[in-house]
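pipeline: protein-struct stage 2 | run 1193 | FGGY family carbohydrate kinase
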Amino acid sequence: MGIVAGLDSSAEATRIVVCDADTGAVLKQGYAPHPSEGAEPHETDPQSWLLSLGEAAGGGVLEGVRAIGVSAQQHALVPLDAQGATVRPALVGSDKRMQATAADLADALDGGRAAWASAVGTVPGPAHQVTKLRWLARNEPENAARTAAVLQAHDWLVWQLLGRPTRRTTDRGGASGTGYWSAGEGVWRPDLAELALGHPVALPEVLGPSEAAGTTPEGLLIAPGTGETMAAAFGLGVRAGDAVVSLGGSGSVMAIHHEAIGDAAVTAFADATGMHLPVVRLLNAVRVLRGTAELLGTDLDGLSALALKSTPGAHGLVLLPYLAGERTPDLPYTAGTLSGLRRESMRPEHLARAAFEGMLCSVADALGVLRARGVEVERVFLLGSAAELPAVRAVAASLFGARVVVPQPADYAALGAARQAAWALGVHEGRLDPARPPAWQGAAAQVIEADEEERLVGAAVRQQYTAVREETHPGAFGERAPL
C-alpha cells in the first residue's frame, strides 16, 4: 500500500518517478540535469548527483513517498578516505585512459584473461572499477594510498540518503560489474581489488534484492539500489526466456538466466531479482546505419525507406558490419566487408538493405552466443531509437528467430528502482515474499512475430550472412559458434 519512488542518476541527469506501490502506475515525475561546469571528461564530483537529485525532487515530488529505490550509472568509482570523504572526483564511464591499464591488469593475474573470467565472470575492461583502481595506483599514487573504501554511484547515493552511516551497502547487480565480485559464487574477491590498488580496501556489504539498506530518521525506507542496466531490465519486466537488445552506436544483448555465465565472450552480471544477467557486447550497431546513410546521402529514415524497396537478402549483398573492429566475435583489428557485388546488386536500396541485415545478423550472432551457452530466448525486447525504424521492425523477428517486443519510450531504470522500493517496502511490512517481486504491469509495447514463411526467409538470410562471415573470418567464434 502507499506510494514509492525510483530515482535514476544517469550520466547526464536525475529522473524521478513516483508510483503506486501495488500497480506501478506513475503518479508524478521529476527531472534535473547534473551540473557540469568545470567537469573533466570521465570525472564527476559526486556532489553534483545530490544537487540534481534535490532539484528533481523539488515542488513536493517526493511528498507522501514511503520508500525509495536508487538506480545510477554503472562503472562509477567513488574512492573514499578513512573518514568517508571523497579522495578525488569519481571516475565514470568507459575512459580511454584506462585501455592500457585494463590490458596490463588482465595480464597481472596468473592465467590471464581466462583466470579473470573464471574468477569473476568478466575480463577487466576500461569501464570496470577494478581497472580504475589500478589506474589510480599507477597514475595517482598519493590518492591511491588515501583510498580506504570504494563505492559505486548508487551505493554512494544510498549512503548519503541514509545520512552516511557506518554501514555501507551495495547490491548483487552493482557488485557484479566491479571486476572483483563473483556472480557465480556470490562473494567479493578482495584479493583482486588489492591486486589492482596495491593495498586492501573496504568493500560494501552486498544486500539481497528485496533487503532494505536502511531507514532514514524520518522513517523513509531506502532499498538496496542497483545499476542502470539491472534497473532497466527490472522496470521492463523481463523474465527468464527474455533477452534485451540495446541499439546505440554500439550494442549489447543481455538475457535473464538462472545461473552465472562468464567467459571471454560473455560478461556475468547479476540482475535485480536474484537471477543472472549474462551480457554480450557489440562494437557496431547504429553506427553501421549512420555510415551507410551518409554514404548514400540520406538519413536513418531515408535509409530505412530505401531498404524496404529491396528484397530479403539484398540481391546477394552481404555487409559484415565490423566498422570499428568487433568484440563479438573477437576481431579487434578487422574492418567491415561488403560481399556479393554484381552489376544488378549495385543499387542504393540493396546496400541499404544489406546494412540493416548485416547489423541485425550481427545481433543474431550475439543472441546465438547466449543460446549456445544454454540461455533460452523466446522474446527479444528491442531498445534504442533504431527500434523505431520500419526496416528494423520488418526484419528483426525473422532474423532473431523470436518474438520481438518494442516497448514504448519510458524511464525504465527509474521504474525499476521504484519497483525495487515497492518490493523492499512490502517485505519490510510482511506483505510480500522476499523471493517474489511485486507483479507490476509490464511495459506498453508493440509485439512483432514472424510467421512461418518469414522465419524461413530469415533463416536463408542468416545462412547467406554466416557463409560470408565464415569465409572471411574462419573460426571467429571458435568451437562455440552461435546457434
